[in-house]
Amino acid sequence: MLLFGEGAANEKLRHYTATAIRRSVALKRSRLAVYKENKNTKIMSLVLENISLKVGAATHIYPSDINLETGLNVVIGPTLSGKTTLLRLIAGLEKLGSGRLLLNGKDITSVPVQQRSVAIVYQQYINYPNMTVFDNIASPLRIAKLSKADIARKVESVAELLRIKEYLTRRPDELSGGQQQRTALARALVKGAGIVLLDEPLVNLDYKLREELRSEMRKLFSQQKETIAVYATTEPLEASLLGQNIVVMDEGRIIQSGSRDEVMNRPATLRAAEILSDPRVNTIPGQVATANIAFEDSVSFKAEKELADLSDGSYCFVLRAHHISLVPKSASAVQIQAVVEMTEVSGSETFIHVTFAGVAWTVQQDGVHSHDINSAIDLYFQPSDLMVFPAVNNWREA
Questions:
Q1: pTM, whole model, 2 decimals?
Q2: Which fold has domain 282-397?
């Protein structure tokens, strides 16, 4: 019990108590103000300007500039490439080593995490186990002190959008993995946050659920006209299906960013092409001389269209597995002969592992097929599907 009376000690006590009350009221008001700002502000852009992060002597994020826009932005890279660290910097969970974060042109670098217009969904769906689905989704709205009527309306609206309205009275342990992840996503969306960060949210779900939720997310964020969503993944398929814009990361570096079509169809480097391809890209050294392209002594063909602009010299040529076929697709198709090493069936596709000019290649064939090991196989590709990069010394391992 606190007793107030005369004297310096009690005067200090009154001061500290009053200060604590003012801080508590200020925090509640700031949360409510942030919620109202989120609801009324149209988010247009998030600019990461020359950001970097070092921890001790280790560089986690090298100096980078990124522009993120309204809609779904995908950050793709292998494990430990810096994707999660980048999301934590945006959220304010990590302090920038250098640079600025600009939201709609306003510097938010020093804004505390609890005052940022941010919601996060993690790999592991995190829900309060002792709360119903309704209460889980409603929790950020109660913190913002919304009325019961507003909370009910918003929760039911987002639950209907994510098809979990019939589960609102259940607890998380009564839900499937997909339903739990939908609940976590609903809690993030109901806040009305301007920025939604998704850190590989589907990685722990089975294939069918992942496919279903990918489709739902694509539709969902196409409807969220005032939200910047940033989705981290290691999978090229998710990047191509979800991303309006794609950022490619490797070992803490941004190696390419741009629209989905630009990044997927025109990788800036061989490493970017590798990260953006599954199965791995097929590489082969080649020489250009007098408008002709030759792959060692195996095949040569005329350089046409964009390839005709290549200067004479050595290059690394790259083809994706689905750009190689077992029948010519046009009169301009180039024929090569390879040797079958093995076939691998995955769902409704067959991956043929072959050796061509001493290099291991993978060919993607629709349907379920078998090919005899060590048999010769004729393959075809369109010269226009070739990607070209500077020659590399260790091309057999590139």
A1: 0.82
A2: OB fold (Dihydrolipoamide Acetyltransferase, E2P) (2.40.50)
